[in-house]
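INFO worker-7 received task bundle
INFO bundle size: 2
INFO processing item 0
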Amino acid sequence: MVALLAKPEISVAADRGVLLVFQDRLAVLEWPDEGKGLVLLEQGADLRADVDRILNAHQGGLLFLVVVGGDDDVPVLLKEADRAAPNRDHLGVYHLDHAGRLVRVAGRRLPLLESAASRLAQVEPLDPSEAPALIERGRQERTEAAAFASNLSRRFPTWTFAIIAVCFLTFALLDGSGPAGLAFKNRLSAGTTAVSQGELWRVITYAFLHANLPHLLVNMLALYSLGGFLESLLGVRRYLLTYLASALGGGLATVAAGTVRVAMGAMPYSTVGASGAIWGLMGATLALVLSRQRVLPRLVARGLRQRLLFVLVINVALSFVPGIDLFAHFGGGLTGFLIARGGPGERTA
């Protein structure tokens, strides 16, 4: 089981845990980016005391315990121990019998554990001589991730805050200046007809305008959350290139789509908002996470991959809400992805 979960040649990279301890009856693995740990405990003479000791030491995060070996009395013992555990809401307890059958006794599920159990017969157990190298590799990965986070935290995202300030300033000046301000705002939005008539600046300036205060706040929160990380990672030049090119890509996409729609008899429309550029930052982050050049430490990339997938699913769904320009979103996202694929980011750890 340890080989399936921790050995790079065997385990799935996205699921590989960090091996912390490998002793005669005990193995401990951790997924630090996900806040979960796994204890594999071989059945022994004083199993209940061993199990209670492990469960009582559990302080935070998700803990999964697998007792290996033993007869039908083991699940009964584990159920009793689970009921007495202080943090049972964050606990999952399994029994792996001598035949290699894994049974969840109580608590949470760990799908990757259940998947690994289905492959037990196909893989040789971990050779004890391999454990020190795996433990050292895990230590290095944790150190690398910590150094990466520390380096990023020391870099102030000046240009991200500058873009946010410009967006707030343009909103205050234009939306707070009555009809004249709104008329000027319309001259800066990504209008299909106007761009086709030569007002090319609109495919960039639209990204610094917003329809209303909630629109502005949501976009700036997203920019703050993602922009600071990417600015520190990519460096100022590549970050600004990615942001502005994504805004341009989103603007061109919405103008192209609008031109087709107008040709088919639809009414012309205009677009405002930083969403295309922000989608470009999401696309760039996705490209970096998927890169084979190891731009990001493995533990950082895995944590980002999971969070980014959730964010992308939500944003794709929102893109189809009436009134939201999905072409600006997807055009900006594709542009950012392609730019980030063009070369590695600045490695900070």
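INFO item 0 finished
INFO processing item 1
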Amino acid sequence: MNDDYHQIEKVIQFYLKSSREDFQPDRAAAHVGLDSSQLKILFEEWAGADPAVFFKCLKPAFIKSQMDGAVTLFDYMFDGEKSEPEISPDRYVEIEPIKPADLQNGLKIFYSSSQTMYGDILIASSGKGICYVSFIDQPASGADLLKRAFPGSFVINEQHDFHKEALKFFQEKAGDSNEKRLNLHVKGTPFQLSVWRALLTLSKGELTTYGDLAGINGRPKASRAVGSAVGKNPVAFIIPCHRVIASSGLIGNYRWGSVRKAAMVGRELAGNKKPASKKETGFELRNL
């Protein structure tokens, strides 16, 4: 799967550098040493969609069409009478904050690495839940990274049951919406935790902007604060910060690389079992 992703990544990078012109399968295939039929098989096996459909989903105009009438997710943060949002039906994930006393008492953190459909990851957990998930493109010491992130903790190179549960989020097939339950035990400020909980309301194939996530018009400082919290998400993919994009419809930046973010967004939109209709979007996904 990792070899497939590396080829997918090269094709996406080639497309993004081509000024997002209409996807040309022959040129893209040649760029990674394949012919167009092999490229089609690669994308159908990895993304569950024809490459033409996949790249149509990355066009800014199409992405913007998916956000028309987007629900404001974050009003509750600025109104004490409003409750926190419900978790999306396909993401039964609970967040518990790591308290300073947890670290002072020598929190035990277990870590392991694994391959996923989007590349290699480092995954870590305490005894209460997943505390860290990060894509790792370069060889690095997981222990050193985690000791810096969680000073005072005891770091143990050992796979925990929580790791196996977290990996199920990466192992689903495109378009699959099976329910999964997972506990997260993360370090963050109250504001950051609120942003991360709000991100969990976004279902697969659902996108929002930083402004909509903040839910405040005319207060750019709030949008910047939300953007900062999104960028500090400690649990890659499971807390779906990749579903926050620029209001222009461009994919935008991502802590683990904009090409990887494009891979996630394209795969989720192209593999969504209930895409918006042609009438709603101006795009026909089935016959391109």
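INFO item 1 finished
INFO post-check item 1: The first strand starts at residue 92 and ends at 97.
INFO post-check item 1: The chain has 13 helices and eight strands.
INFO worker-7 idle
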